[in-house]
Design a protein that fits this description.
Blueprint (H helix, E strand, L loop, with lengths): L13 H6 L24 H4 L12 E12 L2 E12 L2 E6 L3 H6 L5 E6 L4 E6 L4 E6 L4 E8 L5 E3 L2 E12 L4 E9 L5 E7 L6 E9 L14 E2 L3 H18 L1 H4 L7
Parallel strand pairs: 6-13
Antiparallel strand pairs: 1-2, 1-12, 2-3, 3-4, 4-5, 5-6, 7-9, 8-9, 9-10, 10-11, 11-12
Length: 256
């Protein structure tokens, strides 16, 4: 399968963002105004033990849907595009309806090194990135069969296994994993066995390609000391832009 040119990659703009092909300049953050909350921290599935199960030996790209929770009595869900290559993951969430109604998404995405427990947060609106680290590392996983036979997921027969993921701090996190032998044993579904923090990941639209230049911040992006500093700068630019052009976004509108 041939890799499309960077300018042709759409995928939520993820490839354009991370390879630096977007032509948005840092001082043009105004047109990318976003009025809703935007987290600058990696989602739990990306920096938690489940991430090690996504570091397949073969580079791949897919759509991922994550159900996590419940939190405050409700189930939280996120979906987006995921790339995996040589122990690193790249994730960008799909824009939601709130983004479409209130303004364009600022283009937050994440590059994460699973075994090192660190990575980068990128912001397309600012053409910027910042380092982030959790201190938790996951390096080993042990699989054992759970049930005989297979279960069909997304049209592929999958065998169910129990996966124990071991971290640097000791102890193991246990998951039910449904791996597709026709897709090089890639897990199409991962379900945590923990009642305190339930998590279900579902992968689809698998393609076995992930360009290596997606897994580092582009040289043209500006480095910030932390994700918080980067988001503070984004909010400041949003506020200043709205003061200059109140007619475009409502008289005297403020960033919430």
């Amino acid at each position: 399968m041939k890799v499309k040119s960077k300018s042709a990659l759409t995928l939520l703009g993820t490839a354009l963002l991370i390879t630096g092909c977007s032509h948005t300049q840092p001082d043009a953050a105004g047109p990318l105004l976003y009025s809703g909350p935007s987290s600058a921290l990696p989602p739990l599935f990306l920096n938690g033990p489940a991430a090690l199960l996504l570091t397949n030996a073969v580079p791949f790209e897919c759509k991922v849907h994550v159900d996590a929770g419940p939190t405050n009595g409700s189930l939280e869900a996120v979906q987006g595009t995921l790339f995996s290559r040589e122990g690193k993951l790249v994730f960008a969430a799909d824009p939601g309806s709130a983004h479409e109604k209130k303004g364009k998404d600022p283009g937050i995405s994440f590059i994460w090194d699973v075994t090192k427990g660190n990575g980068y947060v990128l912001c397309e609106a600012l053409q910027a990135w910042a380092p982030v680290s959790t201190g938790s590392r996951y390096t080993n996983v042990f699989f054992e069969p759970e049930t005989a036979g297979t279960q069909l997921l997304d049209g592929y027969p999958c065998h169910q296994e129990q996966a124990s993921v071991f971290g640097s701090e000791g102890g193991a996190s246990v998951f039910h994993v449904f791996r597709a032998s026709d897709l090089k044993n890639l897990p199409l579904k991962i379900v945590t066995q923990s009642n305190s923090s339930p998590l279900t990941l579902t992968l689809s639209k698998i393609r076995f390609e992930a360009p290596s230049d997606l897994f580092a911040p582009p040289d043209a992006f500006t480095r910030f000391s932390s994700p918080e500093a980067m988001m503070t700068e984004l909010m400041a630019r949003q506020f200043n832009y709205r003061r200059r052009r109140p007619g475009d976004y409502g008289q005297g509108s403020m960033v919430q």
